[in-house]
Amino acid sequence: xxxxxxxxxxxxxxxxxxxxxxxxxxxxxxxxxxxxxxxxxxxxxxxxxxxxxxxxxxxxxxxxxxxxxxxxxxxxxxxxxxxxxxxxxxxxxxxxxxxxxxxxxxxxxxxxxxxxxxxxxxxxxxxxxxxxxxxxxxxxxxxxxxxxxxxxxxxx
Length: 156
Known about the structure:
With 156 residues, the chain is of the alpha+beta class. The chain has a domain of 75 residues. It contains five helices and eight strands; from the N terminus they run βααββββββααβα. The strands form two sheets. The chain has a four-stranded antiparallel beta sheet. A four-stranded mixed beta sheet has the order 7-6-5-8. The radius of gyration is 20 Å and the shape is elongated. The mean pLDDT is 84.
């Protein structure tokens, strides 16, 4: 079984720094305005929940039978690897950056999406390679093939 993790470097670490600063500001301002220890405690629980969610609650896994994306710790969506018909890489709506979304589609029309902003391009490429290894009949669009060929060219 292979696991693919949400990018901690792009999301978790910067978010954690911002949340720690926000928590410290709130903590040191107890008694000013409406800031109480109860509100600091609630904020701390909220910030901890966000950290845990981003660190451990979002991931994908591939085993010999299915590709599964899990969000919010327990909400999962699976597609049988043998039922995957095609993989496409489309441009994402993020403005100002070259972001892509990997769309894994089954024969029945179900799909799982992964953005390279959240999972990084290297993880996206590994997902494609691993899925192709299990099911070589998966069709890849031109952008997906370009991504894979550019990674091979970069290794040389």
